[in-house]
Amino acid sequence: MPIRRLDPVLVDRIAAGEVIERPAAAVKELVENALDAGATRVDIVIDAGGRRLIRVWDDGSGMNADDLVLSVERHATSKIPDEDLFAISTFGFRGEALPSIAAVSRLEIVSRNEAESTAHAISVDAGSVRPPRPAARARGTTVEVRDLFAAVPARLKFLKGDRAEASAVAEVVKRLAMAHANTRFTLSGDGVAALDYQHVGEGPDGFARRVAEVMGREFRENSVALELQREGLSIKGFAGLPAYTRASAGAIHLFVNGRPVRDKLLTGAVRGAYADLLPAGRYPAIALYLEIDARAVDVNVHPAKAEVRFREAGLVRALVVSAIGDALRGAGIRPVTQASERAIAAFGAGGAFGRTSYREAGWNNDAFAPIEHVSGERAGANAGRALGFAEGQESFDYASRPSGAVEPQAPEPDSATEAEAFPLGAARAQLHENYIIAQTRDGLVIVDQHAAHERLVYERLKRERSTRGIERQIMLTPEIVDLDPSDCARLLEQGQLLEELGLVIEPFGPGAIAVREAPAALASGKLRQLITDLVDSFEEWGTASALERKLDHVLATMACHGSVRSGRRLRAEEMDALLRQMEATPGAEVCNHGRPTFITLKLAEIERLFKRR
Question: Does 394-613 carry CATH code 3.30.1370.100?
Fold first, then answer.
């Protein structure tokens, strides 16, 4: 078959498929045009998810009749004044959006600029352009798109339902609103929840209010501000606390020079910053804004401009990870409202306390006796179910057990009452030999002792590795671990890596290894189970994984086996020491697996449970 030129209308429709794949993409292009025109207000109306109608009104600079004619021609633009594709400071610049939309719909544009005494309108029906005509409107532009994809019915089959398409439009509007706090955005129409983001002004305050307005009050209560300026890159935003997670990546909002993007490099950097803080299958919530020289970033790598490419990608990634990490570490220990709300719900009308009395549950008044009164014969009688501190409990000596080296980082309080002023308060009891109950001045805290100490040991191992190397302890008697011969070989292949982490192993006959040295923080832990878990870890991660991630993963496994186990009774001073070190340790609100280490209940919430409020 001979080569021939495609019909111009067909060319436009093919191009439209690259730029406008759904109504949300059309809304994005039109709103970006309004922002480039300097609009301070943008109103969007849709019908049938945008398939039947999209109307975008703005109060921007507008166009005259000649500009209207050029605006619907392909590759006609006002946004590259110097024809320099390496210094793009506007959203649109290709001159494809309006022609692409016009090729697959019925398009009408009404616009007026300040220099004109009247507005003008132009219509395009499936690529057929009608000449401009006089119209009436104030300064600005109104773009109306009807029957999207009517010219290419096959494309309609790939659209989702009206509700899903409307939701995608709302998401586009939210992301653009987050990037432009000085612009008012409204969205209305059939099948979509109305949005109205007011003009909140420029500067840090306006920026913070817009993020809270779009992402919700709960996000702002469970996030920390971040800011970093280095190497010509400015990073700001809000990072959600590690324990405040989402089921999908939809709450990761990324912006480069005011442009919402879904960039793999930046997403990977965000995930890397939260790598050892999130549970499997959960994602962080974050609003991250990058400002960088236009010549250092290429926005011309994707037809829909949804991705960017950085000149120094490694530097950008490192700075993003650093900015998020510094913000989370500097936040101190903070409770997460999600966990507290779940706890309140559990105690509420549908919980066990709402259905069963304490006598029906098998409790008696002795269980509520003050801790200091549990002694003597009563202590012996109740030893099997002791709920609090007791003189006869097994001691866990932190000084003699490296695996329990919990040293308070804050000044020791003179009394338990003063300890209540600390974020995690003063330890009052231990429940089921795993949960520490602490009292603060305005409520109480419940701490999972194993999860908390697991994080402390992990952070200690990381500090040792990055400074002087992990401290080892020679085993008086080598620990012999029997394994499958193939597992032995796999583990011995990683011998150098394990030695860097303080674990020295050597073969001990067929199907066995001997542990000669172990990290001091783990020497008294369950080394047999640790070795078995390491075999599984190396099988899962393989040898091609990044060394840093593998090291952290192995350290996390080690920390799990070297921490205070569930079922260990602790003395009051040991519990307080654990609380004080949690307060001084970054990331202590979650364990290595991303589970929360504590929850808080405010006194007002407790009083509501008892109908005192």
Answer: yes
